[in-house]
Amino acid sequence: MHVQGIRNLYKARGYVVRSITIKDAAKTVVLKRDKRFGNSCPICLSDRTRYHKTAMRSVRDYPIGDAVFTEIHYPAVQVYCISCGQYRTIRPGQMDEHARVTRRYMEYISRLCRKTPASEIAELLGHSPTSICEWDKQVLQRKLPKPNLDRMRILLIDEKSVRKGHNYVTVVMNGDTREILFMEEGRKKETLMRFFDKLEPAQKQRVEAVGIDRGGAYLSAVREALPEAAVVFDKFHIIQNMNAAMDEIRRAEYRKALKEKSSSASLIKGQRYNLFRLAENRTEAQTIRLQELLSANETLSSAHMLCEQLRLLWGYRHRGYAERFLQNWVSLVAESGTEDLIRFAKGLWRSRAEVLNYIQYRVTTGPLESLNNIIEQILRRSCGMRDIDYLFLKVRQVSLDL
């Protein structure tokens, strides 16, 4: 079966289509050298070359029509370039030097990888999942722009779990553009310093604020590399720490009630998340049950009221008023006599400068938290991933919406 109109798909400089054959589910395209073109060096384009040998090569191309796959056969001409002083191989422009598929076929696979698991693509096209991921990685390396390190005003830094067994990566995001700038395995100071070492002095000076977790190992790295930038402790992590302190109080009260064989034990059991919920997120039944608990247990009632009051801190717009509020709140906690909450409040007051920087910059690591679902989806589609560089490219692809 001879096809004429489809020949334009396989035009390449220095090559012409010799034949196109379609048989069953396979399409075979045979190219030959165009005699109008000499054996120029593909690197320096010099005509000062000496012919060495010719070998037929086969590559897979994307399917068209009813064909499940397309095979392209072409002569690869090896020449010695006198200008370069090296042997060079002449091949059609769409052919990759190492892969057994065309570049546009890899781009086709890369587009499928945006939404389809690698295992399903491999089964559909007859390749291994490893090859699918490798070709997708090569396309992303060519297509994605390098991280823009010149427009950084706000940086968001956090750690993300990528594998079982507490395997974490450090992630840096541009807080204004939501672009992922850095991802590397580890969550120590040295890991983050490898990102800062890439920055020019002028790029560091443009950074005004950095949002991080209060309990992370990144604080010393930020202060060393960006001494003029304001550090903002993430409010969501602070609330999480507060909830942890609240949960310790609940556990202690539950143990106390069991020891005293008090009927309040049944009220405390199962109320963990009900104590953490915002009032607008509770059902009517949950609200009634919480009120019964707080009426029966004075310690939990006092601690719950103090935790609810702390949430008001991030609504302030004036730093002086916010600091006065925080000071009064710490005093109230001290008067309550609840050790777990007192310990938390003392730590919060020691870090008040970083906590109150939120009032000026309104920075949270919330945008980074959305990466958890993105990373999980990418890992699932890729059938697991041990290549952190590839994961970084996939996350950047989502962050840039490309």
What report would you give on this structure?
This protein has 402 residues and is an alpha/beta fold. The protein folds into three domains: 5-95, no CATH class; 154-234 and 365-400, Ribonuclease H-like superfamily/Ribonuclease H (Nucleotidyltransferase, domain 5, 2-Layer Sandwich); 241-361, no CATH class. It is built from 17 helices and ten strands. Strands 1, 2, 3, 4 and 5 form a five-stranded mixed β-sheet that branches. Strand 1 and strand 2 form a beta hairpin. It is elongated and about 95 Å long. 29% of the residues are buried. The model has no long low-confidence stretch (mean pLDDT 87).
> So what's the overall shape?
elongated
Total number of domains: 3
Q: Which structural class matches the secondary elements?
A: alpha/beta
Provide the succession of SSEs.
EEEEEHHHEEEHHEHEHHHHHHHHHHH
Distance between the termini: 39 Å
Uncertain runs with pLDDT below 50, 5 residues or more? none
Give the mean pLDDT.
Answer: 87
Count of helical stretches: 17
Portion of residues within helices? 40-55%
Q: Major sheet, described briefly?
A: 5 strands, mixed
Radius of gyration: 31 Å
Strand content: 15-25%
Count of individual beta strands:
10
